[in-house]
Each structure stands twice: as C-alpha cells, then as structure tokens.
Amino acid sequence: MNRTEKAQFLLENYPEMLDFVDIIIYGRNKYNDENWLLPDGKGMSRKENYASKNRHSALYYSGVDKDQESGFDHLLHDMCRSAMPYVRKCRNIHHPKDTHSSAYSRLKVAREEVAASMEQLDDSRCLTKEEALNKYRGNQYSVPREDNK
Q1: Which residues in 120-137 are b (16+ Cβ under 10 Å) and which e?
Q2: What number of other Cβ atoms are within 10 A of residue 103's Cβ?
Q3: Which structural domain range is residue 114 located in?
Q4: Domain's final residue, options 80, 98, 116
Q5: Helix, coil or strand: residue 73
Q6: DSSP state, 42?
Q7: What is the per-residue pLDDT across 77-135, written as a single tens digit (0 to 9) for each?
Q8: Are residues 26 and 37 in the same domain?
Q9: How many Å apart are CA 134 and CA 105, to the nearest integer?
Q10: How far is CA 69 from CA 35, 72, 81, 103, 118, in A?
C-alpha cells in the first residue's frame, strides 16, 4: 500500500484522524510555523513537550474534555504531543536539552551489565529477585535464605 492509498484508507475508515490534522494546523498557527521541528534550542525540548502532554492527559482524565484556549479535545493535544518526539526522531532533530540518547546509552550499558552478572550466577539454584539485585549491586547475598538441599 503506497502513501496515497494509506491516506485514502485513513480518510475512509478513520475520518476522526482529520481532527488530528486540525490540531497540528492549530499549533502551527499558534507557535509560528512548526517551531517544534527547529533544532539547537530554538524548538521545544523533550521535557517541555512531555510536560504539555501530561497536562492535557491529566485534564482529560480528570473530566475536562475541551481545552479552554483552543476548543479542541485534550486527547487531540495529547496525541499531537505523543507524535512530536517520533517525528523529531525520524528527522534526526535533537534539542540541546534532550538527554534521551545519552539516557538510552546508559540504560543499554546497565542492561548489558545485568545480563553479564546473571550469566555468572550459579545455575544449580535459583536466587530470589532481592538476592539477584543485591548481588548485582555488589552486596553479594545480604538477604538470609534457606537452602533447599
């Protein structure tokens, strides 16, 4: 299915998605022509986007359907704020305040360290979750346990 066919499919089966386009156009008019796509500190940081997304989500789930300023449903704002990081990622746009990539690298290293330490465990017995965490943290087996032998 090519892009034109995909667009036609959306229009025929999910006309509500046009409301999503409306919220993007509203934001474009309010914030000066797609400023969220600007790199180097001129656009929006991940933290600012996340705060706005959470605010709209919290308002919707607390019973407020429409945003007072725009008149759009808070879920549309939430959807838009969810899509923004994906578009920025696809276009390789990074804001100087964004720490996502370095946080991801740290998480990846931590996962590799956990996997390596788990491989070193004695397979003849199973550790409890707390024992495994303590061993990983360098505390060896500070949790008293009973042997099943």
Answers
A1: eeeeeeebeeebbebbee
A2: 11
A3: 101-136
A4: 98
A5: strand
A6: T
A7: 999 999 988 888 888 887 776 665 555 555 666 666 666 665 655 454 566 667 767 76
A8: yes
A9: 23
A10: 19, 8, 16, 34, 53
Question: Locate tokens 């089966």: which residue?
Answer: 13
- Label residue 38 left, alpha or beta by phi (over 0 means left) and psi (-120 to 50 means alpha): beta
Do 70 and 120 belong together in one domain? no
- CA dist 53 and 75 (Å) reads 9
Do the Cβ atoms of 102 and 77 come closer than 8 Å?
no
**Contact assessment for residue 24 and residue 78, using Cβ atoms and an 8 Å cutoff:** no
* CB 82 within 8 Å of CB 54: no
